[in-house]
């Protein structure tokens, strides 16, 4: 299997957890895009009934509407039964780095509240420790970006303001904020860092998702493997 | 002195801390409004030179421009020498509740980074413990307001979505978010609660300002008193 | 009938136009609030089926969810069958001033696209010419407010930045913008003014709704009267 | 001269129009980036005094601060003496298409109000009629994008929602909106189309800048040429 096939395989595997009348948090990114597409097909074919999606981004919303998944907002539902999303890094304790797609705030809002959070990755995303390959995306209030970038040096991190390609200047998130990509040497205690970063004034949310994944489906050359608590 | 005179008295007292070439964080609210006005007069009269203000809200910006205080953004300065702002409650350890004016996020962004943070209040704002009279304003991403309001029950808090009077529906902050006013029974450990609230996904910032004030100027019937660390 | 009873009467009258499977634009304001409440009751009672609401504001969304009207976004529907909303002034040609609730941009986005636009007012809103009693609310990009306010003098208008009461500083709209309330002497040609205002750079939308209402239901002491094209 | 040299040449030429005490609108894009850099050098070297820049985007602001151009907001100045910006297309009457950098709204807000508007392009941007090579970028309120895209078919235009590369989903502008890139067959009357587009509810601003440029500096292989009214 190549990477694209791995993505499809885990997306299909995730479908097994979706039942009638579920409210499903819909993640952002290329792997989840397959999941949304497949989910829409099941709904359109009548194999799933009364399933609603809660999108974590404009992208997820557009894909869901296109695929035929009816969408609702977080304020319309009593609970989210399950959320399905990708990740940029997964450590052996199932802590995650997310946010390459700049949707981390809404993703965490939804996934933190889901009864079950299923993560879809291919095996290239598995790391020994968080920060091994990827920076931690941090969503910040625009005017504070420079001050926060400097303060991150205390954490031995080097932060870059993420610049856009299809507009001039920085990437603007769906919430109207900026993204700092902070490269840490090695993240020893993800939960601790997650809390510390969130407590910096001007930080809206950060891309460390510690202690929140319930199940990770990993696409490998030999098929889909599971990491569970 | 009545309350209005107290506000003017502490605003005047705060001027004594402003020196030439200082960058001054400009708070939001009625007491700070006097401070901005007086500061502008000193600058226009040439008694202060090369002083710049960093506004914490649209209100502070409008008042500063009107008063003649040149404004700069946080991203334009290397450091903020001093910040001056009001508060809704002050406990004996100089912990604060702020946010009745809905500007708490930008206020904390500026004041956390100020070399010295001076708080201006009249004596009616002094409390034995935080939460005694006032709710804690919490700025939240709009779609998450209902979920967060429910989760605050775990903290024995009752949260109300703040509704506007000059527009239909909820108050929208300068950052485009909503305000939850959360009434806590009694806040035992302000710093701990401040951190816990910030770690709820969807919370942008909250109105507890623990361990951040350096000096509180209190307007009393008998004149201005000081609380210091 | 007092004003509150008139509002209820027109709200009830508007229900007659709602049929099964309709997509209904939900306006903002106190009169429409009754309509949303009544509509929700019909849906909950099973007297209307497969009816969806497209809210024009956070307020309308909150009210709809509370009342039991399922909501969808404009991007989820192929067409809006009917929109129901209030107005601040109605002239004899059924031109409107709207925007006291600061939701004018989303209202115009929805109502301009509705197959039928029904306006609910009490008789105090009827005027001989637009601008007789009310200013025209204009939604503007924040940084441009002062320049636009000055330019409106060319139109013999006096514009005020709308200040909030439940937050410090200006009212911020659901879209993150400001509202200028522009008092015109007398608006001779509403359609012309509507176009001219929209063409001022920095104006997002304005509160003149010319040539767009299909039916006005007017609450009077003697019952509900109709204005039709 | 290659294209990069042409950009530098026109940027240098534009400097000749800047005098002491001027307020300068700072455009967005790669050509204007050279202008901002050169302007900053003149200011740092003391060859220009009391010059302030009004940025049209986050990008222009970042570049100005880096280059040493002091920035002010539109609400801080009585007038903008001159604005300097690039363009995506220039027709023989000096009408423009702008907005590839997604900053068109703030650009038009600033440039429409400038005493003189100088446009910097290389010769590849000259066209016989607007729309010959480039689509017209249109900034729209997010929820209205699909409806507006459909309505543009009336104008014989094909509109695409601009997708981002450094975030998942659509490009979000500095104002929090979306960009539709609308390909028109041939734009006969730019001023007329500019007004018509702005009058579609949900359109914040569009990328046609008709009758607004005072001078176009064109970088050619043979040096800088001028188009004037």
UniProtKB/TrEMBL annotation, chains A, B, C, D:
GO biological process: D-ribose metabolic process; pentose-phosphate shunt, non-oxidative branch
Record keywords: Isomerase
Lineage: superkingdom: Archaea
Cross-referenced CDD domains: RPI_A
Gene Ontology molecular function terms on file: ribose-5-phosphate isomerase activity
Catalytic-site annotation from UniProt: 107 (proton acceptor)
Catalysed reactions listed for this entry: aldehydo-D-ribose 5-phosphate = D-ribulose 5-phosphate
Oligomeric form and interacting partners: Homodimer. Homotetramer.
Alphabetical list of PANTHER family matching this protein: RIBOSE-5-PHOSPHATE ISOMERASE
Family membership noted in the UniProt record: Belongs to the ribose 5-phosphate isomerase family.
Descriptive protein name: Ribose-5-phosphate isomerase A
Organism: Thermococcus eurythermalis
């Amino acid at each position: 299997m190549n990477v694209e096939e791995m993505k499809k395989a885990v997306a299909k595997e995730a479908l097994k957890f979706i039942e009638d009348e579920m409210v499903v948090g819909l993640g952002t990114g290329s792997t989840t895009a397959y999941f949304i597409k497949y989910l829409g097909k099941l709904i359109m074919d009548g194999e799933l009934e009364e399933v609603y999606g809660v999108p974590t981004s404009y992208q997820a919303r557009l894909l869901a509407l296109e695929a035929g998944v009816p969408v609702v907002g977080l304020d319309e539902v009593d609970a989210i039964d399950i959320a399905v999303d990708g990740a940029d890094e997964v450590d052996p304790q199932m802590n995650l780095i997310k946010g390459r797609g700049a949707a981390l705030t809404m993703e965490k809002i939804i996934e933190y509240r889901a009864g079950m959070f299923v993560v879809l990755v291919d095996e290239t995303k598995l790391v020994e420790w968080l920060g091994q390959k990827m920076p931690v995306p941090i969503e910040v209030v625009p005017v504070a970006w420079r001050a926060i970038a400097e303060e991150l040096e205390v954490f031995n991190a080097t932060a870059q303001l993420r610049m856009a390609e299809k507009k001039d200047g920085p990437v603007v998130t769906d919430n109207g904020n900026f993204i700092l990509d902070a490269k840490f040497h090695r993240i020893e205690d993800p939960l601790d860092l997650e809390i510390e970063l969130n407590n910096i004034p001007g930080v809206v949310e950060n891309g460390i998702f510690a202690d929140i994944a319930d199940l990770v489906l990993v696409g490998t050359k030999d098929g889909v493997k599971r990491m569970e608590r």
